[in-house]
Amino acid sequence: MTPILSQFSYIIAIVVFLSAVGFHLSRKNINLVFLYILQSSAIAVLLFIPAIQEMDFLLLLAAVLTLAIKAVFAPYFFLRLIRRHELTFTSNAYLSLPLTLITLALLAGLAYSHVFKSFVDLSGGNMHAVSLAIAAIFVSIFLSINRRGALSQIIGVLSLENTIVALTLFLGVVDSSGLDIGVSFDIGVWVVIAVLFLSMIYKQFGSLDVSTMKKLKEE
Amino acid sequence: MIILIVILTLILASALSFFLGKNIRSLEKIVIVSSLIELAAAGYVFFNFLANGQISLAPLFSLDALGVLFFCLIAVIGAAASFYSIGYLRAEMQKGIITVERVNIFYVLLHLFLLAMFTAVSADSPIFAWIAIEATTLSTAFLICFYKKPSSIEAAWKYLIINSVGLLLAFLGTMLFIALASKGVEAGEWLNWQSILTAATNFNPSIAKVAFILVMLGYGTKMGLVPMHTWLPDAHSKAPVPVSSLLSGVLLSVAFFLILRFKSAVDLAAGADFSQHLFIGFGVLSIVVSALIILRQKNYKRLLAYSSIEHMGIAALGFGFGGIGAFAALLHILYHGLAKSILFLSAGNIFLKYGSTKIKNVSGVLQALPITGVLFILGFLAIVGLPPFGIFFTEFYVFSAGIKTQPVLAGLAIIALIFVFAGFLKLISKMILSKKPEEVAVGEANVWTYVPIVILVIVFVVASLFLPEQLKTVINLAIK
Asked: What percent of chain B stands above pLDDT 90?
């Protein structure tokens, strides 16, 4: 990998990581969606680089599909839902903001610890980007766990998927472009289903706050 | 070619069901025909494999011995659940519980669910298999909230989120295995299970271990291993009964199938001890926790769901102990699938009669539903592992393998099984053998609600008493 490409990968990794941290700090649903567009666009750029370098049509198609599904299609559904139900603010997190920030710092520290050294060895020239991607994976998992809002949980799952894709690209995983397309399609279907569930939850419980869902306990 | 026939049949069945809309009789005919095709294909796959070895449709599909076993399991239980659905949905419509539109949605999703499972076990690529498993989550999420009650929507949401996070961890583990296997491979080359196995001896052991832990956590979530099991009792108890039987009897095993695929690779990279210790740890934990919950369970569908966690734990223990334990574990998965389907489908008849899944609201099943009562008792005897049912022998071999290598943990698991027996016995005495309330009428809902269960019982008893040599051969090949 050339030094310029390596630096470029690192910049993308920073964008992916910061957007994952931004999800935790955001108190408005619309900000969550825009951060997701930013993160997904960064991932799409990562996919475009090898596609253009190798002039691989299928890889290019996979990159376009990723951009279309994650940066256009999914945000469109989320924004429509937010507007329809006037879901301006996100639900509270289980941990307070200071405790959330401390946890994020610990998770980032863990990603840079000795435990994941062998991953960095596997990465070739992308060691800093790999560590940041691992940190972003932890931060995304924590988002799904810490947030009470169903929309935030969905963004957490999608962010986790983005960060895993980023890590595999930084590790230089070679894979069939056909399967990349399959995974993108799968994510697209997942988004549609998740949005349908959000609507159902809102209709049944009058809120997207999952802590209001107590019917299973009552039974 | 035969794999493609099954895949295309299910795609066609799902599409036709979607377009037929409210024509119930046609929907039922489609489900019967597609189930018969799947059964015939499973028979063909089994005997063709014995005659010619691996069945392949490169580069997408391939079936080795392990794949053949799971392919047949899906076909048999899938057919039983599909036939049963006809009677069950008719009865629910008569009672006004569901509308024709819901029946239509049910059949469309049922075909897609089966399609995803057949694809997962026959996919030649680990990522393709992951996509298929993810598709099972997507198709079943709507089946779990089929009744659109707040509690079922809650259960489905829990299922969707927990399983999606779990499966993304499995995806990460899969990609790490591919990262290890793709060194020296040209970009864009199709990496299948065999290429991972071929490269496994050169893997970095620490990365292979981390990758396997992620796969174990991810697919273990889908398999219902403790502590990733929290979605399972809710989802299995809220889904319509035919779907519960497929979730418990087949889907958990399909997730285990994928863990076993990666086990072979990590064993070559890091030695067999590593995966065996993980299997033993998760296995014992799953058995003990589920046994304690079964003992004080108040809902019979949830009890059956916890029993599935316990049996997945036993299967994991079998592979953890190794040797004869692995053979027994694989056979255990097949027996468990049959026995759990018998119990869930019988539980469906009980629900149709009493309208409740709470144990305290059900009594005198043997008097009110004589056929279902007997079938449920047989299912109970089978699932708790009493002789001469097959589960007795598989548990015996799993634990005899364990006593030699891990006596304390094997002993702990055996004690837990006594709790399970006590929990089931309580259920049987309260629900089945007690006196029927006068207001409850006697009689089964319709013939479709018990004939598929009777057939499953016959298959189970025959497979318990006379284990066919051909099946032994395929299992032996699979554990190799």
From this structure: 71
Contacts of A50 in chain B (CB under 8 A): 187
Q: Any chain B CB within 8 A of the CB of A189? A: yes
Tell me how far apart the alpha carbons of residues B245 and B83 are, in angstroms, rounded to a whole number. 12
Phi, psi of B432 (to 5 degrees): -95, -50
Residues of chain B found within 8 Å of residue A216, distances taken between Cβ atoms: 151, 154-155, 158, 234
Residue B54 CA to residue A94 CA, distance in Å, equals: 51
CA distance B177 to chain A (A): 10
Residue contact B151–A219, C-beta within 8 A: yes
Q: What is the pLDDT of residues B328-352, one digit of tens each?
A: 999 999 999 999 999 999 999 999 9
ipTM associated with this complex: 0.91
Q: Where are the beta strands (DSSP E) in B49-152?
A: 55-57, 61-63
**Which pair of tokens denotes residue A71?**
């940066």
Which tokens sit at A27?
């108190």
- The total number of residues written for chain A in this structure: 219
- Examine the pLDDT at B188 and tell me if it is beyond 70: no
Nearest to A128 by CA among A2, A40, A35, A8: A8
Helices A177-205 and A57-66, axial angle in degrees (round to 10)? 10
Tens of pLDDT, residue by residue over B141-174, are 999 999 888 889 999 999 999 999 999 999 999 9
> Do the beta carbons of residue B296 and residue B373 sit within 8 Å?
no
Decide if B361 touches A, using CB distance below 8 A. Answer: no
Distance CA A102, CA B61 (A): 47
Taken in order B379, B382, B388, B391, is the CA torsion positive or negative?
Answer: positive
- Among B128, B165, B187, the residue with its CB nearest the CB of A179 is B128
Whether chain A has a CB inside 8 Å of the CB on B204: the answer is yes
In sequence order, the β-bridge partners of residue B61 are B57, B123
Residue whose structure tokens are 């028979």: B43
**B2 alpha carbon, distance to own chain's centre:** 23
From CA B259, how far away is CA B212, in angstroms rounded? 8
Query: Which tokens hold the place of B139?
Result: 């198709």
Cα B302 from Cα B231, distance rounded (Å): 11
Residue of A nearest to B356 (CA): A219
Report the C-alpha gap between B370 and B452 in whole angstroms.
16
Under 8 Å between Cβ of B36 and B9: no
